Amino acid sequence: QVQLVESGGGSVQAGGSLKLSCKVSGYTYNPYVAWFRQGPGKEREGVAFMDTNGGPRYYSDPVKGRFTISGDGAEVFLEMTGLKPEDTATYYCAAAFNWPRNWRDPQSPYYWGQGTQVTVSS
Q1: pLDDT class for 92, splitting at 50, 70, 90?
Q2: Mean local confidence (pLDDT), 85-92
Q3: What is the DSSP letter of 73?
Q4: At 87, is the secondary structure helix, strand, or coil?
Q5: Do 92 and 44 touch, CB atoms closer than 8 A?
Q6: Number of other CB atoms surrounding residue 98 within 10 Å
Q7: Minimal CA–CA distance to 36: which of 24, 48, 19, 23?
Q8: For residues 44-71, b (16+ Cβ closer than 10 Å) or e, as one string?
Q9: By CB neighbour count within 10 A (0-12 exposed, 13-18 middle, 19+ buried), where does 35 fall?
Q10: Angstrom distance (rounded) from CA 13 to CA 23
Q11: pLDDT per residue over 30-72, tens digit each?
Q12: Which of these, 14, 2, 4, lies nearest to 71 by C-alpha position?
């Protein structure tokens, strides 16, 4: 049974940094992993994606240049710098075992973690 557990959320001031962790277990081969976020009253959106076997990494435009996804099949990180109040959201880790047609789509066949809250104050 695939399980994902996020940690590392918290409250920071604008301009600060946080590093989220996603521990993945119960898989038989390395997954594709994405980070999503859902802000208050907003839809869930993909922010970063990687193939834990290697290859390019992808970012949504609002976070490009500020967020970095890294890791291996067992643990994936999302390092967030230059945080802004609009980054406030619950952040979710998601794992897939086939390349998703659209990694940004939360309706893709992902396994999900429980989420970790990130709050950025101005």
Answers
A1: very high
A2: 98
A3: S
A4: helix
A5: yes
A6: 9
A7: 48
A8: bbbbbbbbbeeeeebbbeebeebbbbeb
A9: buried
A10: 26
A11: 899 999 999 999 999 999 999 999 988 999 999 999 999 999 8
A12: 4
